[in-house]
Amino acid sequence: EIDPWSVKGGADGKIDYDALLTKWGCQQIDKELIERVEKLTGVPAHPLLARGVFFAHRDLKALLDAYEKDPKSFYLYTGRGPSSESLHLGHLIPFMFTKYLQEAFKVPLVIQLTDDEKCIWKGISIEESRRLAFENAKDIIACGFDKRNTFIFNDFDYVGGMFYQNMVSIAKCVTFNQAKGIFGFKFEDPIAKIAFPPVQAAPSFPDSFPHLFGKGKKLRCLIPCAIDQDPYFRMTRDAAPRMGGHKPALIESRFFPSLKGESGKMSASDENSCIYVTDTPKQIKTKINKHAFSGGRETIEDHRLYGGNLDVDISWKYLNFFLEDDAELEQIGKDYSSGAMLTGEIKKKLIEVLQAMVGKHQEARKAVTDDLVKEYFSTETRKVEDLFPRD
User: Fold this and answer.
1) Comparing C-alpha atoms, which of 306, 235, 237, 281 is closest to residue 62?
2) Residue of 11, 43, 317, 352 with fewest CB within 10 Å of its CB?
3) What element of type H or E holds 226?
4) Is residue 79 classed as helix, strand or coil in its secondary structure?
5) DSSP state at residue 147
6) How far apart are alpha carbons 294 and 314 in whole angstroms?
7) Burial 363-378 (b: 16+ CB within 10 A, else e)
8) Lowest-pLDDT range, 130-134, 169-173, 270-274, 315-319?
9) What is the pLDDT of residues 183-214, one digit of tens each?
10) What secondary structure does DSSP assign to 153-174, as a single string?
11) Average pLDDT, stretch 137-142?
12) What does DSSP assign to residue 75?
């Protein structure tokens, strides 16, 4: 059971991604497509792409065809729903990958903070939603995005003008029955929920950002996101031709699992199910040692004999997300699955990796001032050479 607001695995707690691709009509990213990305950008594929974390797409081939003819043919769009004070590691995944895409393709990026969505679904006040958006923006900026070609906005303060015109145009293309079928809306839902999807769809069209891209819908859009966001953009892709725009392309990821096991995706509502970017080294160590679900055996003797189960071990899964060295990762997999490496040892390795990564993020976050945030939110006209840097 998957929609943009909740993810539940099957009877065994796991997500059947193959069934999801069939049901929703997405395509698998194959080796040939990854190699083409590497050829066009001249840089190695990000580990999250090479290892199949980002595993599905819509119209990525068509977008690459356009890019090959014109390197200024598309922009990136991703986002975040600011419902908590700080991000957890699962929230960082799309931003880590989007930063790679921005730098590899040398294209502009828009980041939407859906403070209105969280106000509607989570019951957070408008004032608190706006504050959380501003605080979350600091963590996003700390990921290292280039402010010359990155625009961050929150819905409560930006929506209007051409953005709103696109929202209305999208909404006119979708009947209530269609919205109900796509999103599962119920008759007792407030109309605020039913009205929201066009807000998340509008950034798919470049003229929603006239200070960046001017008028017209010539530019294509590539959206990196988790696959639970796909319903929004199935709706958008249906509306796009009727609006004179390109269907947005998507590159979609698997879910980042909870520390407690593969039961969907990490949840900020259970602090022991996730690692926050604000956690101390001690908290990271404690959470992994106490709560990270293990694929190890009950006794050391059995573990040495039968080895660890990589299919369920969370430390192994997290290392696939965050350990950059492919050769080291492969060796850890061999050692743990053969029994040569114990559960305590693979957890120790994960602790080291996460402590270093979170510590680096925290240092970068300290350097993000309120004035710097305002620069990313600026609606001043940007130069084309800044948006599409070729240096």
Assistant:
1) 237
2) 11
3) strand 220-226
4) strand
5) G
6) 6
7) ebbeebeeeebeebbe
8) 270-274
9) 999 999 999 999 999 999 999 999 999 999 99
10) EEHHHH--HHHHHHHHHHHHT-
11) 97
12) E
Q: Looking at the predicted structure, is the pLDDT value of residue 322 above 80?
A: yes
Cα of 258 vs its chain's centroid, Å: 16
Q: What's at 228, amino acid-wise?
A: D
Pair of tokens at residue 36: 């083409």
Do the bridges between strand 54-58 and strand 27-28 make them parallel or antiparallel, or are there none, so unpaired?
Answer: antiparallel
Whether the CB-CB separation of 7 and 13 falls below 8 Å is answered with no
What is the enclosing helix (H) or strand (E) of 1? none
Q: What pTM value is reported for the model?
A: 0.94
Q: What is the spatial distance between Cα 6 and Cα 9, in angstroms, rounded to a whole number? A: 10
* Structure-token pair, residue 135: 């605080």
Mean pLDDT for the stretch of residues 215-224: 96
Termini Cα distance of the chain: 45
Tokens representing residue 241 in the block: 């031709």
Q: How far is residue 37 CA from its own chain's centroid?
A: 19
Alpha-carbon torsion angle 297, 301, 302, 305, nearest 10: 120
Residue 95's contacts (CB-CB under 8 Å, 6 or more residues apart) are: 78, 80, 140, 143, 145
CB 91 within 8 A of CB 44: no
- Would the pLDDT of 55 be above 90? yes
> How far apart are alpha carbons 340 and 125 in whole angstroms?
53
Is the CB of residue 153 less than 8 Å from the CB of residue 78? no
Q: Tell me the CA distances in angstroms from 44 to 39, 63, 72, 94, 103, one per residue in order.
A: 9, 19, 21, 18, 12
